[in-house]
Amino acid sequence: MLLEFVDLDNWVKKRGSILFNKFKYEPFTLEEADKVLKESGIEAENTKELLSILKRKGIVIAKKDPNDRRKRLYQFIKSAKKPTRDNLIKNLKYCADLIRTSVDYKVLLVFLFYKAVSDKYLSLVEKFVKDGYSKTQAYLMANRSYLKLYDEDEGKLYVWHEVVKSRETIMELANALNKIANLNDNLKDLSKLVEVLGLIGFINEDNMHILEELVRVYNEMDFSEIDYDAIGDAYQWILSYFAPQKCKEGEVYTPVEVVRLIVNLLDIEEDSEVLDPACGSGTMLIESYRYIKDNYGGEVYLYGQERNEIMAILAKLNLILHGIDSEGYEIYVGNSLKNPKFGEVDYTIANPPWNLDGYNEDVLKENPEVRKIYNTFVRGGYPPKQSADWAWIQLMIYFARKKAGIVLDNGALFRGGKEKKIRKEIVDKDLIEAIILLPEKLFYNVTAPGIVMILNKNKPEERKGKILFINASLEFEKHPDVRRLNRLSEENIDKIVEVYENWEDVEGFSRVVDLEEIRKNDYNLNVSLYVFPKVEEEEIDIEEVFKELKDIEKEEKEAVNEVMSYVEEILKVY
Question: Model's pTM, two decimal places?
Fold first, then answer.
């Protein structure tokens, strides 16, 4: 473990080593860490910041204290078996640049999926062989315990390594993927992805130089001993790398930091059911799964619906690559606003398309089941044609037994007309628990700041009749890779979540507001109306300012005199 500290600066390295020597792999609290550092004779300074750095570096993990959900437990990580994230990303970036003008970026996702599951499969086979089973028996056992990559009828293995072992077999990549789709019920849609991406057309002699180079780089990445989160992170990196380009074409990508903020605010409990009705590539579902695994180690059941069939398929691949068992999720294809295919769950979470048009009363009342949704909280609660934002809110709180967390355009908080009617009823029914104003430039497709709204059907007594407003517009750092963007740091997320959990007023940052005040403001929920960031006042040196004014006055007088002398000279000539 001490080797893990090599790349850190001395301030972190020294304190991290002291904590590791004291706690080893046992969990500890922030207060305990602070006490150990002080007892060692070292000034602790900011222990919370120290632990945040160690967490970012993957040296410690943080999870909820089961005895007090408002507190965190920290623990040093034993495993150091995976290759560095930097090497993985470096290889994928090279591949991304290689295919940028040749084929859809989703090919990289499919190849990553195929290579990773093949490595995991063969690792299982090797384990079974070591236990004394024959190769054929090992294939059959791996088929039953993981994915089916061995055709039992043909007696043929369809792993990546078999398919790419020569120029001739590389040509069979698309056919092998189709075969795997047929062998696995939960991967039936993979054939559709192969078709839409035009893989059969791409895999030909003309592109052989690109294919062989892709195969070479992917072969350098051995995923057999890499944990699922690392593989999943690689998948997420490909999505984020192409996000600026794809957002211009209509695809929506939610930064993972925003997703983690919402998941932490919801504080999802183990053995819960979580739904994302606009799931895209599945990031919100995956972060919900991670949250449960990291904090409680229990189960979570995931449901998603996505109207784009290809994105729904990519979500399934994403879930598999994160090690989520096929019995633990269900992804539906379809329009959630018009035809929800899911049922009631504990939590709903989403970043739906903002200001989606075309979902007024005429469209939404066609389905009798859907009509119930838009008449439950507000009689005739249909949104205007130009924005479905409040339709999404009603949908999500309708299907949530406990809480809903949604990202929306800031305008949803104060626009009038039909939206105001819905907003008024939702406020009066005391369903909104908190509203967070995010910083601007967090999203690839819009520069405007979004908001996070947390709705709660079971507010604690002390929170009833109130809404917590958090103005986090200044809580950001510059994005390390995209110059024009900002992002939420772990410290920003922790600050927001801590204030939400403590339900407290912080000058210039948060305020608990009675519903009566909101009614007096005509149901305007604009966060800046209730909380405005505290601006640091600059100290003014009156004497220095007076001197500067005198200097300016003197310069102006000299300039006027100079101009007048020019005028007098001209008048003399004439």
Answer: 0.80
